[in-house]
């Protein structure tokens, strides 16, 4: 921001609430959720959804588990009205779902809204008028508090009068002092209480008071103070569902909602992935999965978040940011080595500990939830670039290709792969990593190549190996004896005068992924002068041949 322009902004005044209790509260259960995707989300789209797209989105919201869905502003336009009619006339609203419609507290719009909901089994009629000093002064031309309260009262009375005109519909009433976030609290409560006094809700027939953070002017703690203050001063608190509706102007929609719940709210309005006016509405996916991550069930099913996101992106023509919590492309991806190392260790440890303890507490560094719980896979967790470490490379080779590299081989392979990523200045995908691993470590054949070998079993624990090799371009037959195939082959090389190493470690296993008939063997050799110790790998259908090829690979690497 231009420094000279700072002086035109003012701090937001704190709420006088010294005995606030919300900081000590914990969220222990889910609120009532209401999706406003089809209204607040839709009204903020450069190209609003068509009726067909809204129908598809409505079905998606029902599948996710929303029981309250604001379907639009039917009095605003024919498309909105017709959408409402189609839902009702085509019987598309599930028994346990209540539609909600929004309307300004203006007579002709309220009347039209009642026409829109005719025939619905249940509907929330949501009326609003703006209440803040800024809106009173600017939008309503210096209207007084009384004039604004009278708009709310007139709207509430008209809704009360029209309710009997739709006897087949169970009407739930909702009032929002729009721009609540910068309205004086005593005036917000005056408007709300005036409406409550007209509608006279009871604990058995509650109404909804929605307190919108229409524009976020203040920090989330102030929002929480406002909600706690309202909960203390609203009439008939036990007959109300107090509802939150945060936007995200300061990037704190989620925080404001979570603190608002701690402050006593019962209900949350928001949208999938935070679509909505300006910086958006509250992202319900975010808040609901945050709750799940603390073990709180929410009634919303995001177990296949990728499919939900795909429908959302197609019908809204918006996109989910790569860093969006839970849903973003990169949020379960660790690029840096220390993260990769910790995640691999965490997942490995969990795999070992989980048997017999299916509800073992989740505890993997850097991952707040198990990606599998929202339909994302472990394969995508770690990606490799020049910032990656040995742990990540080993993880990919293990999880995606079935190579369980010996621990002391990790630094050698990791360095080779991330040097490659660095030199190519790009991220390597899992197949490129496998290819690079094969190119640099597996079945190497220069300067030494093993063409074939046979074994004669001489005595117990003694074998003779006959092998055909090519060494420095020259084909030779060699022979040696030992206590096993590798040992006898090493002696054959010794007899030929091309052994300049000591075998220091050996490991083999069947490959778990892909070509499952193959075995992998790893051999570590140390040069006789002690200057190098390196691992090589062999991959073959026969475990014996894999071992010999691993030895040849390590030998070749020592000669570089
Ligand atoms: C924060 C939110 O998201 S609120 C929801 C906002 N969403 C929408 O408005 C989407 C749908 N709305 C629309 O399409 C249109 O606004 C309509 C069709 C509903 C109404 O259209 P119009 O009446 O032609 O225009 P518009 O909305 O600009 O009306 C402004 C007038 O209504 C008045 N007004 C606005 N809200 C209210 C209210 N709740 N009660 C009484 N008057 C109101 C304004 O003061 C203004 O009055 P003025 O003309 O005397 O200055
Ligand atoms: C209509 C109201 C609830 C609204 O969308 C807002 O204030 O943001
Ligand atoms: Mg809004």
From TrEMBL:
<keyword id="KW-0479">Metal-binding</keyword>
<dbReference type="InterPro" id="IPR013709">
    <property type="entry name" value="2-isopropylmalate_synth_dimer"/>
</dbReference>
<dbReference type="InterPro" id="IPR054692">
    <property type="entry name" value="LeuA-like_post-cat"/>
</dbReference>
<comment type="function">
    <text>Catalyzes the condensation of the acetyl group of acetyl-CoA with 3-methyl-2-oxobutanoate (2-ketoisovalerate) to form 3-carboxy-3-hydroxy-4-methylpentanoate (2-isopropylmalate).</text>
</comment>
<dbReference type="GO" id="GO:0003852">
    <property type="term" value="F:2-isopropylmalate synthase activity"/>
</dbReference>
<keyword id="KW-0808">Transferase</keyword>
<dbReference type="InterPro" id="IPR005668">
    <property type="entry name" value="IPM_Synthase"/>
</dbReference>
<feature type="binding site">
    <location>
        <position position="247"/>
    </location>
    <ligand>
        <name>Mg(2+)</name>
    </ligand>
</feature>
<dbReference type="InterPro" id="IPR013785">
    <property type="entry name" value="Aldolase_TIM"/>
</dbReference>
<dbReference type="InterPro" id="IPR000891">
    <property type="entry name" value="PYR_CT"/>
</dbReference>
<keyword id="KW-0963">Cytoplasm</keyword>
<dbReference type="InterPro" id="IPR036230">
    <property type="entry name" value="LeuA_allosteric_dom_sf"/>
</dbReference>
<comment type="similarity">
    <text>Belongs to the alpha-IPM synthase/homocitrate synthase family. LeuA type 2 subfamily.</text>
</comment>
<dbReference type="InterPro" id="IPR039371">
    <property type="entry name" value="LeuA_N_DRE-TIM"/>
</dbReference>
<feature type="binding site">
    <location>
        <position position="40"/>
    </location>
    <ligand>
        <name>Mg(2+)</name>
    </ligand>
</feature>
<protein>
    <recommendedName>
        <fullName>2-isopropylmalate synthase</fullName>
        <ecNumber>2.3.3.13</ecNumber>
    </recommendedName>
</protein>
<dbReference type="Pfam" id="PF00682">
    <property type="entry name" value="HMGL-like"/>
</dbReference>
<comment type="subunit">
    <text>Homodimer.</text>
</comment>
<feature type="region of interest" description="Regulatory domain">
    <location>
        <begin position="444"/>
        <end position="560"/>
    </location>
</feature>
<dbReference type="Pfam" id="PF22615">
    <property type="entry name" value="IPMS_D2"/>
</dbReference>
<dbReference type="Pfam" id="PF08502">
    <property type="entry name" value="LeuA_dimer"/>
</dbReference>
<keyword id="KW-0432">Leucine biosynthesis</keyword>
<comment type="pathway">
    <text>Amino-acid biosynthesis; L-leucine biosynthesis; L-leucine from 3-methyl-2-oxobutanoate: step 1/4.</text>
</comment>
<keyword id="KW-0460">Magnesium</keyword>
<keyword id="KW-0100">Branched-chain amino acid biosynthesis</keyword>
<feature type="binding site">
    <location>
        <position position="281"/>
    </location>
    <ligand>
        <name>Mg(2+)</name>
    </ligand>
</feature>
<keyword id="KW-0028">Amino-acid biosynthesis</keyword>
<feature type="binding site">
    <location>
        <position position="245"/>
    </location>
    <ligand>
        <name>Mg(2+)</name>
    </ligand>
</feature>
<dbReference type="InterPro" id="IPR002034">
    <property type="entry name" value="AIPM/Hcit_synth_CS"/>
</dbReference>
<feature type="domain" description="Pyruvate carboxyltransferase">
    <location>
        <begin position="31"/>
        <end position="306"/>
    </location>
</feature>
<keyword id="KW-0012">Acyltransferase</keyword>
């Amino acid at each position: 921001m231009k420094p000279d322009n700072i002086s035109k902004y003012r701090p937001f005044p704190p709420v006088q609430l010294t005995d606030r209790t919300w900081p000590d509260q914990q969220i222990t259960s889910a609120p009532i959720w209401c999706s406003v995707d089809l209204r607040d989300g839709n009204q903020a789209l450069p190209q609003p959804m068509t009726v067909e797209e809204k129908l598809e989105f409505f079905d998606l919201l029902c599948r996710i588990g929303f029981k309250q869905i604001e379907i639009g502003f039917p009095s605003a336009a024919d498309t909105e009205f017709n959408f409402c009619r189609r839902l009702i006339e085509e019987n598309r609203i599930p028994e346990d779902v209540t539609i909600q419609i929004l309307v300004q507290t203006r007579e002709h719009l309220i009347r039209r809204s009642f026409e829109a909901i005719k025939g619905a089994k249940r509907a929330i009629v949501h009326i609003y008028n703006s209440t803040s000093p800024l809106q009173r002064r600017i939008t309503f031309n210096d209207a007084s508090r009384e004039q604004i309260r009278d708009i709310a009262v007139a709207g509430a009375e008209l809704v009360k009068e029209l309710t009997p005109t739709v006897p087949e519909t169970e009407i739930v009433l909702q009032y929002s002092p729009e721009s609540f976030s910068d309205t004086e609290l005593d005036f917000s409560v005056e408007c709300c209480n005036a409406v409550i006094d007209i509608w006279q809700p009871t604990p058995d027939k509650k109404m909804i008071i929605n307190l919108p953070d229409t524009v976020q002017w203040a920090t989330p703690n102030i929002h929480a103070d406002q909600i706690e203050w309202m909960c203390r001063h609203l009439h008939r608190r036990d007959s109300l569902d107090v509802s939150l509706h945060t936007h995200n102007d300061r990037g704190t929609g989620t925080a404001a909602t979570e603190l608002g719940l701690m402050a006593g709210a019962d209900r949350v309005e928001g949208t999938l992935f935070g679509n909505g006016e300006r910086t958006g509405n509250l992202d319900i996916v975010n808040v609901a999965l945050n709750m799940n991550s603390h073990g709180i069930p929410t009634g919303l099913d995001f177990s296949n978040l990728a499919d939900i996101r795909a429908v959302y992106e197609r019908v809204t023509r918006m996109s989910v940011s790569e860093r969006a919590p839970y849903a973003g492309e990169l949020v379960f991806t660790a690029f840096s080595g220390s993260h990769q190392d910790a995640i691999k260790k965490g997942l490995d440890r969990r795999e070992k500990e989980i048997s017999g303890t299916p509800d073992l507490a989740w505890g993997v560094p850097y991952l707040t939830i198990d990606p599998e719980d929202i339909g994302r896979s472990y394969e995508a967790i770690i990606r490799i670039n020049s910032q990656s470490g040995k742990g990540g490379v080993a993880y990919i080779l293990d999880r995606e290709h079935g190579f369980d590299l010996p621990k002391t081989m990790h630094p050698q392979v990791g360095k080779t792969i991330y040097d490659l990523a660095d030199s190519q200045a790009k991220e390597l995908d899992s197949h490129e990593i496998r290819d690079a691993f094969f190119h640099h470590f597996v079945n190497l054949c220069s300067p030494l190549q093993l063409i074939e070998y046979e074994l004669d079993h001489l005595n117990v624990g003694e074998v003779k190996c006959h092998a055909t090799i090519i060494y420095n371009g020259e084909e030779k037959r060699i022979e040696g004896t030992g206590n096993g195939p590798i040992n006898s082959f090493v002696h054959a090389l010794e007899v030929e005068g091309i052994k300049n190493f000591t075998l220091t470690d050996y490991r083999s296993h069947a490959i778990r992924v892909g070509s499952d008939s193959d075995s992998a063997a790893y051999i570590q050799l140390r040069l006789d002068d002690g200057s190098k110790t390196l691992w090589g790998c062999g991959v073959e259908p026969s475990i014996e041949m894999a071992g010999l090829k691993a030895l040849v690979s390590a030998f070749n690497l020592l000669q570089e």
